[in-house]
């Protein structure tokens, strides 16, 4: 590419070649710049009626959507707040979990008796009808500035007639039960070291799908082979999670366990390179949207570990519809230059029009940013 | 004599400054968020959601997902206002996804943190008599798109009013069968934009006081490429607003004073429009190669040899093998051009170049002149799929810029873009 023509465009033309009088030119410029409005009006503060959880409890209007109380499912033993599973549930963890405002998560899976999931190499396992994925979001006593462990919400993904539905349950103040709340809610949480509580936002039922979508259908994000391929300390002893499912006859048509893919643990510096950890982090936090068939597909970005080609991964990729999200930067990723990379800029922002991911990110994930910054720096 | 001419130019420059664009209607908000969220979530197929009248404020996006034949109706743009000022979560005001046959009509929507109305993966979307705005003085912190159907089929946007978008007021992307008609778009960076879409008709709109009035773009790396765009009977005037797009966005390249800009799209038919008082250019026709040159100013190219950097930049569109970065089969005919401004807008390099090259008579139609391989066929004729043909009155000034060769081959020969050129 011959860049000379461009340099000529960019370089100010010698004034003499345009008009002989330099004085006139400068006057031009003075007029010009006096025209440009420079004021940046800050967004007006608006008094809002706070969207507090008024009277968490059973809402009969939601009956056609799902069971009204978490306890109705019989997933946990009483008292519910101990989250001790009944026989229905198997706990699991992910190698690299999605960040949600530093909340801790306890995950469980229920597969109906006599049924099993089918192995999928890259995608979420193909679960049978009747499967329930349970994810509890809580802050432990040590995470909180004061008070006891607090469970905020429990989200259920239930597969019925071949498709998934997503249901958010919000826990009451007394932590005795959680209630279906399809419009979501906000819960003030004060983490250790914070002067002020931040607002933890429980998504609306439809916001769930803003992330949990593939080719138009609701889809779980976490339980892929690469994420489940790890050990878990079961009551009966430590075992590989997938092997456990195989032993329980919950997993079918799987290859030899040597062939199971595994994704890096994003915070395991001993065993994984920066590149592996960063790609794992992007895969779970961004790759559910930014992938072919995902809700963010319109921009052509693919942040899964399976992304093909530097451009689709964002390297020297110009934004398509980022708006203010570009932060005045030209490319998603500029190798070696995190400060010029839109990807990092959006991770560092807390403005809803800019921040990424869009949901569950009332707080900034400092450790995640450090990792991605290091990774972009390392790229050539 | 020259001095008096210049003085005249000053006076004109002085009075053609951007006036402050400020939209600040009185608002008194009430909160119906939970009630309306519930209505959206539980909406039955074949139903209507009446918004009622009032000024309503929301903290989260309103989402309609997987529904069929649903109408969302207000009591008119003055009576029903949905405001997302102070939004905490989600980037859109209203988000419609995976639906069919949805109609939104008769309300105002304001101040979403990202896009006011985004519609994705939907077959049959009508946006009718809506007003989309960002309030206050227009600035780069405003959301990107006002009305934003993307990855849709059968899109109708009519009788809407859109202002204040830091990208495009009305933007249709990666969609099939699109009609955009009788809308008013002003104070946006781009008034109306069709991007990577197929079978699009843009007619009887008024696009004024934007940076660029109507854009027809095709970008690389997306799910589909566009073609067959007809832009006619629009009034496109005074699009001289400063470009307030956050940089990094493709519309950031649009020079203030642009009536229409056609980028790398094929089968574009532009006729019967009134294109008036756009300071820099009435209609520009450019290739993505030029965008690539503009996007990265030399001092920002990462270290390395000039050639190496150039190759790296090229990769981003050359990786997309389905993408053709050159416009072609563009037909411009029977439009009315006029421009009372003597000097182009100088806030963009092209304005300066135009002043230098053309003095006090900016062109009405300009093509960057970057020719693809295969532009000339073996028999010496211009390849019809790359032809740009202008059939306008003789006093319509048309130029080929030859940007790539430092403007050496610049021509103002009106025959250069003639439709019956056979050589």
Molecular structure report:
Chain A has 380 residues and is of the alpha+beta class. Chain A is built from 9 helices and 14 strands. In chain A, strands 1-2-4-5-6-7 form a 6-stranded antiparallel sheet, covered by helices on one side. A two-stranded parallel sheet of chain A has the order 3-14. Chain A has a two-stranded antiparallel sheet with strand order 8-9. In chain A, helix 7 (274-285) crosses helix 9 (366-378). Chain A is globular, with a radius of gyration of 25 Å. Chain B is mostly beta strands. In chain B, the strands form 3 sheets. Chain B has a 20-stranded parallel sheet that branches. The longest helix of chain B is centred in the first third of the chain and has 14 residues, at 2-15. At the A-B interface, helix 1, helix 3 and helix 4 of A face helix 1, helix 2, strand 5, strand 8 and strand 12 of B.
List keywords for this structure.
heterodimer; A: 380 residues; alpha+beta; 3 domains; 6-stranded antiparallel beta sheet; two-stranded parallel sheet; 14 strands; 19% helix; globular; disordered N terminus; B: 423 residues; mainly beta; 20-stranded parallel beta sheet; 11-stranded parallel beta sheet; 33 strands; 13% helix
Rg from alpha-carbon coordinates of chain A: 25 Å
> Strand content of the residues of chain A, in percent?
15-25%
Oligomer: heterodimer
Shape of chain B: globular
Q: How many structural units, i.e. domains of chain A?
A: 3
By DSSP (H or I, 4+ residues per run), the number of helices of chain A equals: 9
Major sheet size, sense and barrel closure of chain B: 20 strands, parallel
- Which overall shape of chain A is indicated by the principal axes computed on the Cα atoms? globular
The low-confidence parts of chain A are 1-53
Backbone structural class of chain B:
mainly beta
What is the number of strand segments of chain B?
Answer: 33
Helicity level of chain A: 10-25%
Largest sheet of chain A: 6 strands, antiparallel
Overall mean confidence score, pLDDT of chain A: 86
Low-confidence stretches of chain B: 297-315
Q: How many distinct domains of chain B?
A: 1
The rounded distance between the terminal residues' Cα atoms of chain B is 42 Å
Q: If interface size is counted as residues with C-beta under 8 Å from the partner's C-beta, which chains form the largest one?
A: A-B, 91 and 103 residues
Roughly what percent helix of chain B? Answer: 10-25%
